[in-house]
Amino acid sequence: MKLILYVSFLFGWSYAEARQSIEPIPRILFLQDQRQLDRSEFAQHLAHPSSDVRIQGALALANLQDSAAVPLAIPLLNDPAPEVREAAAFALGQIGARSTAVVMLERLTTEPAPGVRARILEAIGRCGTAGDLDRLIRLPSQVIDSTLEGDRALGIARFALRSVISAESIAFCFDQLHKNDPQIRWKSLYALWRSGPHPSIDSLVELRANEIRQVMEDRSPEVRMHLATLLGRVVSQAGRNLLLELHRREKENPEWRVQVQIARALASVSRTHPDSMPALLDLLEARNEHVVNASLASLNTLSAENARPYLVSMGSVAVLKRLVTGSHVPDALRGEAVIATAIFVPEEFIYESFISDAATSEFLKSRVIAAVAKLKTEKNWRTIRNLLENSNQRLARAAWESVRESLSRRNAGKPASAGERDLLAHDLLQSARTAFSRGDMALTTAVSDAFRDSLVVDVMIRSGRMRELAALLMDVYERQRSPDDVEAMQSLLTTLIASKDDRCIELLEQALHDSDRSVALVAYNGLKAFKGESAAIAIPPVQPPAYTDYDWPKLQSIAKRQRIRLVTTKGVVLVDLLRESAPFTVLSFIRLMERRFFDGLSFHRVVPNFVIQGGDPRGDGWGGPGYSIRSEFGLINYARGMVGVASAGKDTEGCQFFITHSDQPHLDGRYTIFGEVVSGMEVVDRIQVGDRIVKMEISR
């Protein structure tokens, strides 16, 4: 049953009484969780004698991400406590107002504390302009010494993540590759591949090939894996040759994370250099399961025309057969091998037994359905069509997710007749009604997404059924509720907006006041699309959270680094929960652990050299605890082994968590970090889809 606690109920006193009764830090956390920017009150907190209070106040501004808070945060850059100045810089980066980058660049020239300067570099990367990027790379060594070069490189990468790139910043990062510190080298390579593809990268790779060969010998796997990713974004023959050389070197003493990136890079260059295919196929027989998985997934992005001859000539078809039929092959690998078989050797693909076999996992059946959609015949479309109303919601969802692909292959080279279109529109609407009637949020989202595809939209328009579809979607939307149905609500609104049916304007105006901010933002953008950018449409203030838990004694009883044991079917992982960084998230997870909520749940998502993800009671990525909590962004960044909370947008977190295989700077400030692996990363590295959490418990 969904748990909803309103603040007035929980405390038994009013908002005004709360303001007078709570100590400063709990009060700031309360305001942060309520998403309330009371500028006069925050001004008092930010002037508090205790630096701890001022730090918490600055971090609250970082979480509110309201441009109205900029005047409150800027003075803190001159606070006597370096920890406060660091939190202030973080807040300005999170708010993202472009005007603040100039202020921070000026502060950088006088700031004495290295930690604060590093945070300023990060913040400038999040909000600066092209001119600020130019100023950043020209800062002299008196301002940016050797200890901060890696932070400057990451700052450049953060510019690139916002598509602010220059030939000068690219050349600057190439010049950092000879530095002694591997942190500088991998962060510079990260900035380079985030800047690619770019003509300057192509030309410099060719000009500096010998330097790149030296980087191939780097002892740091982080350096080599980011080099592989960079070479995958180079279109020249020189880049392709260097990538093949790196592949050969890595085979001698393989590191799985490097080989995963090599596999992805090889698939990328194989589009323009098909003769790179043998190296990619070679990795299908790697010893590490993550490498095989990444190789298969990368292979599946290529065309059959280019790849099939190499699969046949190299005997890789037999490798695919072994992966599909092997009894000890993880489902994730089997699923990718099934899809590869359908794409490259469809004559070998027999799928009926997979779908009908009760012993086949739902995950693998879903992948088989995705594989069926790769086939071109009418028979295979009928298979997908019949599965749209399957009684198993996960299989029905997989079929709906495959509609576009299956239809595009079915109709390749032959336009549908008017009669065929009318029948197809009728069938799709009938199946949609059946799917919507089940009230499953994930299935509803998949159906709604399918009706946004251009091919399906064309069928509905030409058959004259768009208004009927829009009416159905509006009716379904009225049955959704935040927070359980947020993803479905986002999708339904987006599809209605795409339909251009102005009958949905009233619904969008209603959704503008939804308690979930992400839903309100979709509605806001939709109203702008209907009424014009100049229309006066105000986004309402953020609504108070439906679920809160301000049990301060309970929160204080949790250690600042409370250790927990994550016992899995692959071994034990020890995690320190970070109460100071994400207090309400830690409290929520502790309460769920006390209920044994996680025991027996699976890891439903594994992306090699990115994350493992689990904690979903449904086991398919769509489940939650029956409530959502706020995002909590702090000063800790996503290094290898950090534990974060999955979400569908800001303030939609629940119970699903992930652990990073490697540093992931693009997640910083976007996903809550609430834990850190302190032992057992070798276990994390072995986990595959379908492995389970035996139990999650507090370590005594």
Q: Layout of helices and strands, plus pairs?
A:
Layout lengths: L6 H5 L3 H7 L2 H11 L4 H8 L4 H14 L5 H4 L8 H14 L4 H9 L5 H14 L2 H8 L11 H13 L5 H9 L6 H14 L3 H9 L1 H8 L4 H11 L5 H16 L3 H15 L6 H6 L6 H11 L4 H10 L2 H10 L5 H14 L7 H5 L5 H11 L5 H10 L5 H9 L1 H8 L7 H19 L4 H10 L3 H9 L3 H12 L8 H14 L5 H7 L5 H15 L20 H6 L3 E8 L2 E8 L4 H12 L8 E5 L3 E4 L27 E4 L11 E4 L12 E7 L1 H4 L8 E6 L2
Antiparallel strand pairs: 1-2, 1-8, 2-7, 3-4, 4-6, 5-6, 5-7
Provide structural commentary.
With 700 residues, this protein is of the alpha+beta class. Among the domains are: 22-195, Leucine-rich Repeat Variant, CATH 1.25.10; 415-544; 552-698, Cyclophilin (Beta Barrel). It is 56% helix and 7% strand. The protein has an 8-stranded antiparallel beta sheet with strand order 3-4-6-5-7-2-1-8. Helix 11 (149-161) packs parallel to helix 13, helix 29 (418-436) crosses helix 31 and helix 30 (441-450) packs parallel to helix 33. It starts with 6 loop residues before the first helix and ends with a strand. 49% of the residues are buried. Mean pLDDT is 94; it is low at 1-20.
What labels describe this entry?
eight-stranded antiparallel β-sheet, globular, alpha+beta, 700 residues, Leucine-rich Repeat Variant
